[in-house]
Amino acid sequence: MAIAQQQRPPIWRNATVLKWGAQIAVFVGLVFLFVTLGAQSLDNFAQRGLSYSYRFLSDPTGFVVREGIAFQPDTGARALYVGLVNTLRITISGIIVATILGTIIGVARLSHNWIVNKIATVYIEVIRNIPLLVQIIFWGAIIQQLKALTDDHIGSYTFWFTSAKGITIPWLFPTATFYQWLVWVIIGAIATRYVYRWRMRVKEATGNETYALSWAFGTFFLFGLIGWFAYPLWSWLGPILGWIGDVIGSIPALAVRLVLLGLVIAGVGAFASRFFSNLRAGDNPQLNNSVIFGMFAVALVLALAVFGGFLAIAGGIEGAGGWLAFALIVAGVAFALKLLIDYVAPRTLVSGLVDDDYFRVIFAVLLGVVFSGLFFGVDVIGETIVKLFSAFFHFLEPKFDGSNTGAPFRYAPPAVEVRGAGFVQLSSESLVITPGFFALWIAVTLYTASFIAEIVRGGILAVSRGQSEAGNALGLSRFQLYRFIVLPQAFRIVLPPIGNQYLNLFKNTSLGIAVAFSDIVQVGQTLYNQTGQTVPVVSLWMAFYLSGSLILSSIVNFANRRLKLVER
Amino acid sequence: MAESKIVLPDLPGAEYAPEPPPQGPVVWMKENLFSTPFSVILTIIGGLIAVVSLRGIFGFVANPERIWQAVTTNLRLLMVQAYPDQHMWRVWVSIGVVVVLTALSLAAWRVGGRTSGRKLTGNVMALGGLLAIIGLVADFPFEMNVTWAGIGLALAGLGYMIRRMMGERAKAENIPVLAVAGGLLIGLVASLWVLQVPVPDPDSGIRAATTELLANTTRIPWLLLLITGFVAYGIGIAIRDWKPSRPLLVAGWALSYPVIFLHILRGTRMNNLSEYLLIGLAFLVAGAAIIYALVNLDIGESGRLISGILLIAALVTWATPVLIIIRLLLLILAVFALAAPTFGGSGGSKYRYMGIYAGTVVVMVYLMLLATGTSAVQTQSAVPFGGFMITWLLAIGAVALSFPIGVVLALARTSSLPLFRVMATVYIELVRGVPLITWLLMSVVVFPFLFPEGVEFEDVVKVLLFFTFFSAAYLAENVRGGLQAVSKGQAEASNALGMSTMQRTAFITLPQALRAVIPALVGQVIATFKDTSLVAIVGLFDILLIAKNVVPNQSQPFNFLGSIKENLVVVALVYWIFTFIFSRVSQRIERNLGVGER
Predict the structure, then answer these.
(1) Nearest 5°: phi and psi at B550?
(2) Pick from A566, A445, A560, A438: which is nearest to A499 by CA?
(3) Measured between alpha carbons, how far is B339 from B341 in angstroms, rounded to an integer?
(4) Angle at A489 (CA atoms; ends A488, A494), nearest 5 degrees
(5) CA B530 – CA A122 distance, rounded (Å)
(6) Distance between CA atoms of A136 and A515, rounded to whole angstroms?
């Protein structure tokens, strides 16, 4: 504002004009490019008599998914869900095993024992330098060329059976009484927490060894044991769960939509207010009431923009009302930004609009618009949520039936049986790991473990020498040194890069397509091969992977924040 | 060590630390394998794992069911796919270019230290020991066990003998590593002339009919390449004190990619030679004149106006039916004109800037000549080679093309301009959040729909484009890390000197940032190199797809059905060799730069 009084430079030398001109020019150019390409793709689609739609999600499908929670999904959405669960199965089991294996190998890499050290080194250098896809296909080829089962295998007992159709290992399957037992286990976990704290308190108060860990394990085990026999105690939960399911099922979809809309607007509001309180937390003397008023004005305008967005999408963009609403969003966002830039930002320069704050606000508004439009505009979502919750409780209801008896687990030994025209095959009673799952799981796990091992090694080496020297000076044993001095400090260092490896593992599961593993990508590919709806399927993939990455990285960030040393 | 130290009297000439007393293998084993009870257990477990893995691996290799001839017979298919016979010399010339550049660079950068006879013989003995152990434990036929163990023991003995013979001289570090490497290469090439392998008979279709030399058709080219390499190394030693030799070599490496893949291997006939040369010449002369005027700091405001007009003219030409080369050259001229005040000045820097402009124009004209030329190598697809060549085409192409994009994205993400920052952030996070394979599938099923009918891309081009965009996002994050590592004082100092934003970025921030991220960039090359195997999923015939689908399905004239494991092992080996070399180079660079040392 102060500059306005001085002599302005000519327009082609005015830095502000040049900066904003360049930015807007590039932005408009990009938008123009995307709109052109998008319109062209719609045209090309129309020429083939197609138009983008997500109808395939609710249309019946005819294909068979090779593995997962359902082999013949009835709709496209169900098929994608089966693929999604398969992806998550590999991701979670892979993360657990890769972490353990990687830590062991990383520590072994630093071992003073020559042979252990060399084995770890060779493992890392070999696995890390071969493309993952080659490894996946190699494991797939190995299992594909396994010898067929013969009559000799019937009735014999080994730890596993292998065949080109898959691999069986001993497994515990949950039975009908599993869920009642699970209630005991959950109660046991809560009780364990309190017992552990109590023993630790006693230890701190008296200084005696109180065996807190043994107590905790004992409590947990005790509850598990009690639950093994006392599970019928919870059978009264069944009717209640069924009643809850009925009640949820009777909620009108409109109510759900309204609640969701409220949640979205509240979410954007909460986000905005957190953002503002961040600004306010900076102890800024210039941050007087008028600025705070400005902030609330921004929040109000943002909420209006969200409302306009959902109106636009709910009413369809056609028609005067839709365009009016659309104009409302654009005007709202623009006005909010103008307020931010002109009014709030210059006064808060000390605490400052950090890095991506503009981005965050725009992002929140856009997400708010999209979600409110989705929740309110698409009828199916409200109904689906009601149905899902109701189905969840109705699914639990029979699990708490008093007539269920038997142990909560069924032990399934690996077995073979004669099926069809006299072929010996893996028994359907035991756990059969499909070739695709096996190849993908083992390759991804070994591959990720080699990277985690290098990170763990680096983390241990990064712990300052003085720490282990101090530990040695205290006379700690090597195990104690690692357990109490080195590893806890290394853990803080390695957590962020290991989180990155988890993300890589999650994304690498998509390579299962090479060994016909039915993950979300493979199912999606089948879907668009059948329906031609490439862009919608791709958009669903992106939504899945982006949100998955976001969730994983927020878990890692949360752990990171909890573990971070409080400095200064 | 528990022994108490013996204090030596200060003798003249005793400034070197005394050699530790020679330890027998028993002491070594006691210290490294059996120091504590826990270590004993570890040694036993580790030894078991080692024996079982060695037995497994070599049992797999020596298993008579393995059809290794599937690989040896199809080696050319794996490497270059169906590249026509009469053009094979082009492949050899391409490898020759790389060999010459490598040899020259090794000489110019004085790579390779010296090693001692002790270390060398130690390595020979270790190799012999390993072979002997393999011979003892592996699941071979008995004669092979004996042979391997014999060879191993002989090698170990040879190493020991040489060390004994060298005596005290073995400790001196006076053997150049490169000479050893050269000797090994000579041995390798010599083995091509000696080693015999079983060869299938094409008439009867019987495998292992006769034996033939290992490299029957390629031994002469390899020999020539070896000689070329040695000659080039000699030339390199002669010219390495000439100052511009290193920059010229860097330029040579940069140009080698288009020269090899667009010119030699494609056998490009330049159709518009005279026309393009004329256009290029015109731009050279006119552009040089304009830039000569613009680098002059006295020109002031009107310089900006001229370059602004040039930029607008360059953009307008894209809407008019002018030759593409003119549009591109005009754009280059406009960019150089705009940046002239940044790099300009008087004296040497002025002429250097004009020289860079001239070089850019020449390269651009050359590239456009290649792009508009027709291929002399006739195959079914527009890109006449597949196999391992396509891996290199994609890996190097993607990293080279993505480098400028990545730098721009990183600058945008750290920029103070909010819209640029938002756009860069969205792009980077979107690309990184989604697996590469979905992007590659998009390049096949979505990307072609974005263009009007008639505009078609070769599969390789589409995939290369998506690889570039993908790799750019990761590169941008690496470069951003480097930018954040540059201390704030640097930027403040350049501000204090009155540098413009562009000058600060080009001369102060970016050079330091890029230096700090070189290891990460090599890591990116390795990652991209490994990622190129994914093109097999979208149906591009790279080495993996040929190994997985083509060779194991051959039944005529030879029956190689089901030979997928053998092929994959060789493919893995090929990938492994190159990634291992890359990672070693990366570690070396890291050490030389002293990056990451505190």
Answers:
(1) -85, -60
(2) A560
(3) 6
(4) 95
(5) 19
(6) 7
Q: What tokens were used for A433?
A: 């790991």
Structural contact between residues B319 and B312, judged by C-beta atoms closer than 8 angstroms: no
Q: Which residues pair with B269 in a beta bridge?
A: B374
- Supply the DSSP string of B277-308, one letter for each residue: HHHHHHHHHHHHHHHHHHT-GGGTHHHHHHHH
Q: How far is CA A90 from CA A95, A437, A514, A517, in A?
A: 8, 8, 15, 10
Look at A115 and B420 and tell me if their CB atoms are within 8 Å.
Answer: no
Interface test with B, best of A125, A134, A525 (most B CBs within 10 A): A134
Listed in sequence order, the residues at least 6 apart from B568 whose beta carbon sits closer than 8 Å to its beta carbon are: A134, A137, A138, A141, B547, B548
Q: Is B544 within 8 Å of A511 (Cβ atoms)?
A: no
* Contact assignment for A26 to B420 by CB distance below 8 Å: yes
- Residue A343 DSSP class: I
CB-closest option in B434, B445, B536 to A534: B445
Q: Taking a C-beta distance cutoff of 8 angstroms, is the pair B34, B43 a contact?
A: yes
Which residues in chain B are closer than 8 Å to A23, comparing Cβ atoms? 417-420
* C-alpha span between B25 and B321 (Å, rounded): 80
If 0-12 CB within 10 Å is exposed, 13-18 middle and 19+ buried, where does residue A398 land? middle
Which residue in B has a C-alpha nearest to residue A112's C-alpha? Answer: B32
As a whole number of angstroms, the distance between CA B515 and CA B509 comes to: 10
- What is the pTM for the complete model shown? 0.84
The whole-angstrom separation of Cα A546 and Cα B430 is 7
Secondary structure (DSSP) of A95-130: HHHHHHHHHHHHHHHT-SSHHHHHHHHHHHHHHHTS
For residue B451, count CB atoms less than 10 angstroms from its CB and return exposed for 0-12, middle for 13-18, buried for 19 or more: middle
Give how far B301 is from chain A: nearest CA, Å.
9
**pLDDT by position in tens, chain B (length 598):** 344 455 555 555 445 555 566 667 778 778 777 878 888 898 999 989 988 888 888 888 877 778 787 887 788 888 887 788 788 888 889 999 999 999 998 888 887 778 888 888 888 888 998 888 888 887 777 888 888 889 999 999 998 888 888 877 777 778 888 888 899 999 988 888 887 777 776 666 666 667 777 667 778 888 999 999 999 999 998 888 888 888 888 889 888 888 888 888 888 888 888 889 999 999 999 998 888 888 877 777 788 888 888 988 988 888 888 888 899 999 999 988 888 877 766 677 888 888 889 999 999 999 999 888 888 877 766 667 788 888 988 998 998 899 999 999 999 998 888 778 888 988 998 899 899 999 999 998 888 888 887 777 888 889 999 999 999 999 999 999 888 888 888 989 999 998 888 888 888 999 888 888 888 888 888 999 999 999 999 888 888 998 888 888 877 767 777 788 888 999 999 999 999 988 888 887 777 766 544 3
Q: Are B49 and B350 in contact (CB under 8 A)?
A: no
Dihedral sign, Cα of residue A235, residue A241, residue A243, residue A245: negative
Which residues is A254 bridged to in the sheet?
none
Delimit the domains of chain B by residue range.
270-373, 379-598
Angle, alpha carbons A525-A526-A530 (nearest 5°)? 115
Which CATH superfamily groups domain B379-598? MetI-like (1.10.3720.10)
Residues 6 or more apart whose CB falls under 8 angstroms from that of A477 comprise none
| Contact map slice: A 41-100 vs B, CB within 8 A | 41, 43-45
ipTM confidence score:
0.87
**Residue A304 is encoded by which pair of tokens?**
């209006």
Residues 546-575 of B with CB under 8 A from A: 548, 562, 564-565, 568-569, 571-572, 575
